[in-house]
């Protein structure tokens, strides 16, 4: 399945998948126990793995993917405000 960079960051932040470079230079997200697979992006899609949709080189996408992971792991500002409010209120 083709996914965006943001969605890939969310999936990787969960910890169940790992990013690999396919033989044709795309980034695929595969389960951690499948990290040694050598496959093309088409084969990855056919095997129901995630493939990051991008026209940029794999190295650039990996850097952007790290940023997307950091963004996905960052606390939601609204959630953070609500937590602080609950602490102040004592509930």
Give a description of the structure.
The chain is α+β, with helices and mostly antiparallel strands. It is built from four helices and four strands. It has helices spanning 5-14, 41-46, 58-73, 77-89; strands at 2-3, 17-21, 27-31, 50-52. A four-stranded mixed beta sheet has the order 1-4-3-2. The relative contact order is 0.21.
Helix content: 40-55%
Q: Please write the string of helix (H) and strand (E) elements.
A: EHEEHEHH
How many β strands by DSSP? 4
If helices are DSSP runs of H or I spanning 4 or more residues, what is the number of helices? 4
What are the segments in which pLDDT stays under 50 over at least 5 consecutive residues?
none
Mean pLDDT: 87
Strand content: 15-25%
Structural class: alpha+beta
Main beta sheet strand tally, sense and closure: 4 strands, mixed
Question: What shape does the CA trace take?
Answer: elongated
Q: What quaternary form is this?
A: single chain
Distance between the termini: 43 Å
Strand order of the largest sheet: 1-4-3-2
Nearest-angstrom radius of gyration?
17 Å
